[in-house]
């Protein structure tokens, strides 16, 4: 079974099912298992400290690098050094550098350290310019977000298709043309997540998707935020009932 693809506005196609953050020393084994089970997308980040292990897992799997889509992030202190940050990521994934990135600095109040002197639109222009200069380094650029559902509606939908609730939660974003990144280091779950997501998204009807969309509209969705906090206004309620901390 192969991963469904999503066509990006850059013209590239991104595998819609990928792997996500795991604990150090678990990443390489999880990535190797995921690629062996059909995954072709790995999500890493400087803040996760897992870029080097993603590269180790890729090589151990034997899957050609050209078949794998690797996503990483531009860190908040690198907004004036876009290409430098990109080159560091490529170096770590390719295992051309020793060790992992350092733990990210925080401010005295516990918030993450970010460069607030730069307008995001200017950083985005630099990202566009970097992509334009480096054919072969960057396939596409974008932003990410992670809404979660926590509602009885998600448990009702599977009854129509003899599915499990986790399958629906993985298939739902795929049905909306989004990339889903289930997190697991358990070999069986890695395989089950891929099969569940791949087999579910095409079964969900427009009515099913509309029902699930209504969960967020009704305020019952959870927003996934990484701690420590960013220390900036996110533009929505971040009360305790709205957060899932990672």
UniProtKB/TrEMBL annotation:
The active site is at 48 (proton donor). It comes from the Eukaryota. This is NADP-dependent oxidoreductase domain-containing protein. It comes from Paxillus rubicundulus Ve08.2h10. InterPro entries: AKR, NAD(P)_OxRdtase_dom_sf, NADP_OxRdtase_dom. Transmembrane segments: none annotated. The record marks 73 as: Lowers pKa of active site Tyr. Pfam families: Aldo_ket_red.
């Amino acid at each position: 079974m192969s991963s469904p693809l999503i066509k990006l506005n850059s013209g590239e196609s991104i595998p819609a099912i990928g792997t996500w953050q795991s604990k150090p020393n678990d990443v390489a084994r999880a990535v190797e298992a995921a690629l062996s089970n059909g995954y072709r997308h790995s999500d890493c980040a400087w803040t996760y400290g897992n870029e080097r292990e993603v590269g180790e897992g890729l090589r151990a799997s034997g899957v050609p690098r050209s078949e794998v889509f690797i996503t990483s992030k531009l860190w908040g202190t690198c907004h004036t050094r876009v290409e430098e940050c990109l080159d560091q990521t490529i170096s770590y994934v390719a295992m051309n550098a020793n060790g992992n990135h350092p733990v990210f600095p925080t401010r005295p109040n516990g918030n993450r350290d970010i460069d607030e002197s730069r307008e995001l639109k200017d950083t985005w222009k630099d990202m566009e310019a970097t992509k334009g200069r480096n054919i072969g380094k960057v396939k596409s650029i974008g932003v990410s977000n992670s809404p979660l559902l926590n509602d009885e509606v998600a448990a009702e939908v599977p009854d129509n298709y003899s599915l499990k609730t986790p399958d629906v939660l993985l298939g739902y974003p795929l049905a909306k043309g989004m990339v889903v990144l289930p997190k697991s280091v358990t070999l069986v779950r890695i395989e089950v997540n891929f099969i569940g997501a791949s087999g579910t998204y095409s079964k969900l009807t427009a009515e099913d998707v509309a029902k699930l969309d209504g969960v967020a509209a009704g305020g019952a969705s959870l927003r996934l935020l990484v701690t420590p906090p960013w220390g900036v206004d996110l533009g929505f309620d971040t009360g305790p009932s709205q957060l899932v901390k990672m």
